[in-house]
Amino acid sequence: MLTSSDDLSRFCASVFASMARHDQRRWGEVYVRGLVEVPGRKSVRRISESLLGRRADQSLQQFVNQSSWDWHPVRERIAHEVSAALAPRALVVEEVVLPKSGRSSVGVAQQFSQTLGRVLNCQLGLVVMAAGPVGVAPINWRLLLPRSWDADHDRRSRSRVPCHVRYRSRWHHLLDTLDEMTVDWRAKPLPVVVDASRSSSAVALIRGLESRGLRYVVRVSCSTPLVRLAAGELVTVGERLARAGDSRGPAQHWRDNRAAGSRYSTVLLPDSGATCRARGVGFPHRTRRVMVEWGAEPNNVESAWITNVESVRSSDVFELLALWSQASRGLQRLGEQSGLRHFEGRSFRGWHHHVTLVSAAHAYELLGRLHGDGGGCAVSNRAAANKVESLQ
After folding, report:
1. Distance, CA of 82 to CA of 140 (rounded, Å)
2. Maximal CA-CA distance, the chain
3. For 57-69, b where at least 16 C-beta lie within 10 A, e where not — what string?
4. Phi and psi (nearest 5°) for 150?
5. Would you state the pLDDT for residue 4?
6. Which of 179, 191, 289, 300 has the fewest Cβ atoms surrounding its Cβ within 10 A?
7. What is the per-residue DSSP string for 104-126?
8. In the structure, what pLDDT confidence band is assigned to residue 229 with cuts at 50, 70 and 90?
9. C-alpha–C-alpha distance, residues 3 and 145, integer Å
10. Cβ neighbours, 10 Å, residue 280
11. At what angle do helices 71-86 and 8-15 cross, to 10 degrees?
């Protein structure tokens, strides 16, 4: 864990300890230092010019796009550092939209962004962010490869997409990411907060989370199907709210930084009484409920969230919604300030390397703020340059 006397070099030595070669660890520090210190666009050329001199462009580009280092243990270490200091209360899942021109960069296609609600030429990904009252940090990523890339052998070859990497739904990606974190990393399971209101697979996502015994708060649309009642009728969220009528829970007011306040009420959902199983362990279904945010007009649903978070205080779920709002703003800052949108490579490996290094840079700055040192680096740019000169 960082303290006020630690610097970027010590942080990078910790998170890059899994890299096999000394030069990889050094180049990792240079790139992260550039993401932290270089203002404006954080291209490889600008990082090189600011920290090292233009002669390092090719080496830095090779480190990000072609080097063989494994990003998985680096992300695990970043998550450990962040969790120890942040004490996160939720995992917030966000869509990552990276607009692109052309069609050669890995995963680029004309795709529908659920966040933006429109089609554009872009890369799409998912990021899992650890969120706590004092900050959020991206800790795991997935690139959403479009279905059109499965049979495009030319683009797959140029982008070095592994043979086993194919199109999968975003919720398969998300559940795989959560499995990696809870099983491989042995991370503490936290409530998962995700917006699935523009997805037709929200029910599949909820079932996947429940099969893993995870708590969740999932935003859904009013057309999302719920459960089959005794008569065998398929009921949507909107129909369930309409049938609830006066049986809705009392209205509750919640205030956060987005607006003056919001009015919510709760509707309990029928319980199947079933037990789901994951990896040989049985998990009883928690009680599900719909939390409805009401608009200004009568019976106008602003948003609806299905949750199985059981708590005496409804404010606990409100706090999770506040973390979701906070993480959404944090992702926007990540794109603008930490270089997320500035990746210039085209390869599958390069994309994963870049977003992992962005996580490292963001984690360093966050930990610096938490410990009161502002994320400042004790090692000067000249010292970083000396390190690189020794590698040439």
Report:
1. 12
2. 75
3. bebbbebbbebeb
4. -60, -40
5. 36
6. 300
7. -STT-EEEEETTTTEEEEEEEEE
8. very low
9. 39
10. 5
11. 120
Place of tokens 């928690």: 286
Place 336 in a pLDDT band, splitting at 50, 70 and 90.
confident
Q: Which tens digits make up the pLDDT trace of 156-177?
A: 999 999 999 999 999 999 999 9
Q: Give how far Cα 117 sits from Cα of 101, 111, 258, 304, 392, Å.
A: 19, 10, 21, 18, 48
Tokens of 60: 């830095």
Amino acid occupying residue 349: R
Tokens 């491989």 identify what position? 184
- Residue 256 near residue 325, CB atoms below 8 Å: yes
The whole-angstrom separation of Cα 283 and Cα 302 is 32
Instruction: Name the average pLDDT for the chain.
Output: 83
Give the DSSP letter string of 225-256. EEEE-TT--EEEHHHHHHHHGGGSPPPEEE--
List the structure tokens of 67. Answer: 């080097």
Place of tokens 């659920």: 114
Q: Would you give the end-to-end CA distance of the chain in angstroms? A: 32
- Residue 46 structure tokens: 């600008």
Report H helices in the chain.
8-15, 22-37, 44-51, 57-65, 71-86, 153-158, 170-179, 202-211, 237-244, 315-337, 348-370, 381-389
Percentage, residues of the chain above pLDDT 70 = 81
In the numeric block, the tokens 């509750």 are attached to 252
Rounded Cα distance between 160 and 348, Å, is: 6
Rounded to whole angstroms, how far apart are CA atoms 269 and 285?
12
**CA pair distance 175, 296, nearest whole angstrom:** 36
